[in-house]
């Protein structure tokens, strides 16, 4: 059974667009479920659970990552202007901790932590 059939079996006829994008990414030439999962920051098992609608955790963060990495698009970044959604995600990931003292890293650390797109900071502040 191929991945899209699996997704349809578990999600029904209305497979979410981000799950379809996940399937397309896994089925791309040279790709694999494990490679896609690694790029998302998860394991192949998590991707398998997502296709089977069996992931027990919150889907919002994963959906956000799939959209940013595999569905593309441009983001209006308050600090940099128009940037790709994958670049936005990379800066957000780096904003978890200040790991460099370069002026750009400090600027983006501050900008990302104040940005409403950055759910990780919002969740951290709520805890």
From TrEMBL:
InterPro entries: Lambda_DNA-bd_dom_sf
Highest taxon in the source lineage: Bacteria
Protein name: Transcriptional regulator
């Amino acid at each position: 059974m191929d991945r899209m059939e699996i997704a349809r079996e578990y999600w029904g006829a209305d497979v979410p667009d981000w799950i379809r994008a996940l399937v397309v990414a896994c089925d791309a030439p040279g790709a694999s479920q494990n490679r896609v999962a690694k790029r998302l920051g998860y394991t192949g098992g998590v991707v398998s659970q997502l296709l089977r609608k069996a992931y027990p955790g919150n889907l919002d963060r994963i959906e956000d990552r799939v959209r940013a990495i595999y569905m593309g698009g441009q983001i209006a970044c308050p600090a940099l202007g128009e940037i790709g959604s994958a670049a936005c995600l990379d800066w957000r990931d780096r904003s978890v901790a200040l790991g460099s003292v370069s002026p750009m890293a400090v600027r983006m650390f501050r900008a990302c932590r104040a940005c409403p797109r950055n759910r990780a900071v919002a969740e951290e502040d709520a805890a």
